[in-house]
Each structure stands twice: as C-alpha cells, then as structure tokens.
Amino acid sequence: MDCRTKEERDPSNENYIPKSRYSAVNHFLSDHEFVKDELFDVPEIKHSAEHYEFIKSELPDISDRLARHVAKLFTRDPIPMYEGELLEEQIDDNTMTMHFENIQSTNWNSLRFKPPPA
User: Fold this and answer.
1) With 0-12 CB in 10 A as exposed, 13-18 as middle and 19+ as buried, what is 75?
2) Which stretch of DSSP H or E encloses residue 8?
3) Using one digit for the tens of pLDDT, what is the confidence trace for 25-83?
C-alpha cells in the first residue's frame, strides 16, 4: 500500500517522500551508540522544517531525533479527522494526547513511538 502522490514518489520532486507511510523504519529515536554504529541508522529523515522549528522553540530540551520524528509525521496529510475535535475550547491535556495519537497512528511503520496515555 502506497498512498503517496505521484510527486511524493518522484525523487526529483521537492515534495518527494522516500517511503510509504506503511514502510519499514530507517531511523530510531535513540542516540545510543549501538543504534548509530550497528543498525546503520539514518537520522536525517525528511520532515517538516516548520514543525521541527516550532517543536524545538516550544520544547528546547527535546532531543533532535524525537523532534524530527514528530515533525516527520507532518510531511503527510493525516488520514482520519473527526468533526469537532479541533475546537479551541476542547483542547486540554487529554485532547492533545488524542490529537497526537491520531496523527501518529496514520504512519504505520514497522516500529513507532508509543507514549503512555495522558
């Protein structure tokens, strides 16, 4: 299954995304030496620069790898969107977790970040 557009599949296009949202991972969140040395990790992944900068400005202590991972989720359009979920008066800690899980779950890689519930 590959839901990328023609432009997202074209390596010469600026909107190129190297893999389907359902593909195997090629990066890990850990900075451990084993990951870097033994697993041939590729930490430089295509991600939304705008979202990366926002994450780093709001959470300066977050690791670069985790910030890139979350920003990577925004290179694709989310699949599910539920009516009424983005109303400003509904945003609280539980809702924010729900939104993250919604976006995170649209990228079914072979391995993904699964934080504990709020």
Assistant:
1) middle
2) helix 6-9
3) 667 777 777 776 666 666 567 788 899 999 999 999 998 888 888 888 888 766 665 66
Q: Whole-angstrom Cα distance, residue 71 to residue 50?
A: 8
Using alpha carbons, select from 42, 107, 39 the residue that is nearest to residue 73: 107
DSSP secondary structure of 29-69: S---HHHHHHS---------HHHHHHHHHH-TTS-HHHHHH
| In contact, 86 and 109? CB cutoff 8 Å | no
Distance CA 24, CA 42 (A): 12
This prediction's pTM: 0.68
Q: Which residues contact 12 (CB under 8 A, 6 or more apart)?
A: none
Residue 37's Cα: distance from chain center in Å?
23
- Domains of the chain, residue spans: 6-104
